[in-house]
Amino acid sequence: MKILIKTVLVTALVASTSLFAGSGHSHGEHGHSHAHEQEVVTKDTIKEIAQQKVQSLVKQKKIAKSWKSSSFEKIEQSKLNYKKDWVVSFKNAKIAKQSRQTLYIFVSRSGLIKGANYTGK
């Protein structure tokens, strides 16, 4: 019975603190937005970010060392989702298996890496 009373009291306390925060709580001079939009970066920056990711994957030994000297193939907007993220592709002719000669790096419009694969999907 004591455990039940303690649980109810703690729950009430936690719930009440969020009620007192209200909509006027301050976040300082920097302001605060609940929007999740991030600044869009240039195509050149997207390409650089993707190139850095390729180097990182090599360093982490997730892809072959020969990818270190791979060549940039193209950059285009994704047709797979409504956000229009970027797909940056790199070519590595040193890879024996043809289906793995192209590496696709997915980058958001704000420059965040979303993933990488050999299919482009």
Describe what you observe in this structure.
- With 121 residues, the protein is α+β, with helices and mostly antiparallel strands.
- The protein has a domain at 43-117.
- It is built from 2 helices and 4 strands.
- It has helices spanning 2-21, 43-59; strands at residues 71-77, 86-91, 102-107, 113-117.
- The radius of gyration is 23 Å and the shape is extended.
Quick structural overview:
This protein is an alpha+beta fold and 121 residues long. 31% of the residues lie in helices and 20% in strands.
List descriptors.
121 residues; alpha+beta; 31% helix
Tally of DSSP helical segments? 2
Q: Give the low-confidence spans.
A: 17-22, 25-30
Largest beta-sheet characterization: 4 strands, antiparallel
The strands making up the biggest β-sheet line up spatially as: 1-2-3-4
Q: β content, as a range?
A: 15-25%
Structural class: alpha+beta
Mean pLDDT: 78
